[in-house]
Amino acid sequence: MDTVDMLPEVPSSFWMYSTETTNYPQLNEDLKVDIAIVGGGIVGITTAYLLKQAGVSVAVLDADRILQGTTAHTTSKLTSQHAIIYAKIKKQMGEELARLYAEANQYAIDMVEKIMQEKSIQCDFVRLPAYTYTQSDQYVGQIEDEIDTARSLGIEASFQKELPLPFPVKAAMRFENQAQFHCLKFLKELARDIPGQGSHIFEQTKAVNIQEGNPLTVVTEPGHQIKANQIVIASHFPFFDGGGFYFSRIYLERSYVVAATIKEEFPEAHFISAEDPGRSLRYTPSKYGRLVLFGGEHHKTGHGTDTNKHYKNLLDFANQHYQIDKIYYRWSTHDCVTIDGVPYVGNLTARSPNIYVATGFGKWGMSNGIASAKILSDLIITGDNPWAQVYSPSRFITSGSALKTFVGINISVAEKYITGKLEPGDTDKNIEKGEARVIDIDGHRIGAYRDAQGTLHMVDTTCTHLGCELAWNDAEKSWDCPCHGSRFTYEGEIVEGPAINKLQHVKGEPNEVEARIFS
Ligand code: FES
After folding, report:
1. What is the pLDDT of residues 29-42, one digit of tens each?
2. CA of 518 to the centre of ligand 1 (A)
3. Domain end residue (candidates: 395, 428, 458)
4. Does the beta carbon of 484 lie inside 6 Å of ligand 1?
5. What's the distance, Cα to Cα, between the start and end of the chain in Å?
6. Which CATH number do you get for residue 47?
7. CA–CA separation, 166 vs 305, rounded Å?
8. Are residues 233 and 355 in the same domain?
9. Which residue, by CA, sits nearest to atom 4 of ligand 1?
10. pLDDT of 513 over the 60 cut
11. Is there a domain that residue 237 lies in?
């Protein structure tokens, strides 16, 4: 049997599967609150929780259900060890800002533990060590540097040559007192405390615009408005740019997880490799016993259509080193990555004192997400936070590597925009069940997917955000944008923004569609 046949047919997240789906109401009237928060992920929910605790009224808006986006598709590690990052921040921004980044992320672990204890939340929180390892001589020096830098910032870090893993490593870095938890068990409990006393959570309420003024206004797709003194944009990729040019300084990366029970004992620790292809390992308790999450295989969103091969590579890695009992889940996620690797958290622009943003967590959205909620709630309530400087979205980038990344992002977007328009569509319009292709209909590029029942679904493959051409994602059956990561179902509905308009979708065969769309 091909290893890929061992995978569950449909992607699903263990975190979502092991918690109840929420059922908050849709916004059905105009409203006024102190703070409107767009996005019901880890940042939106935690910020709302902290603000409500501080005595202000909040409204959280989510286009779908809360806690179903990137937050639900993480590996849910809670750590200040972000592979190799401190040496990079120190070089780019200086030692003091590297120290602030370390403090913010350490604080986030302690904050989760404190809230969990105060509220008696059962969320599988456990303290354990975190390791970054390498199997390549090339990374040994970087790991040694990172350990020295981390120690100089006050982190308890040590060098290791042996790990409790079934393969040899050249070097590893161990951080003490890190953690892991079940993010949705924790966050769904925080969400319960938000509605009431003038505060709300609204689901299936898509924010489509912000009108500046005093107060500010969030315009939603059901047609109702929320007026607020301040707005937090916590929508993963910011749905509103406001002149911040986020589309030119964030890129999207997709990565994958396979969750399986294994015959061996898995150690009390979590692990990540320093080199590519990335490999991440942790366990979580589940009703099936200990599930091991094998993660990694990151690549730019929308670059390459054979996304199934990434699951296969993870499965091959797992099979090579462990005796797999059963694979229960597989899922993928995509992360916003900034040009210098540090998230953007704070005022959306220098000219928007009442609009805040939190985005660009790379693959470290748990600790950075909690830290962001603390930063934003402090800035809103007191106007100050000790870590705000390192996360400032308005920071000026001077380092050569960050500038190179900035240029690379924008060249890549321009290339994808232009080559996407020039690539000819397929003239063969016979599409098999389960197959997707970009076909040419009267000079127009149309994305066509035939589902298992034989129905053909066709969409215009021009991304409704800024016009790049979409690519097919075979593992998730979606059309993905290579420029800023918007994703659409094969029927054209939005899976993830920044796009706020769906694709034109028409059922039928190509000749009928031709008559309907282009007549
Ligand atoms: Fe920006 Fe598609 S997400 S052009």
Report:
1. 999 999 999 999 99
2. 24
3. 395
4. yes
5. 48
6. 3.50.50.60
7. 32
8. yes
9. 466
10. no
11. yes
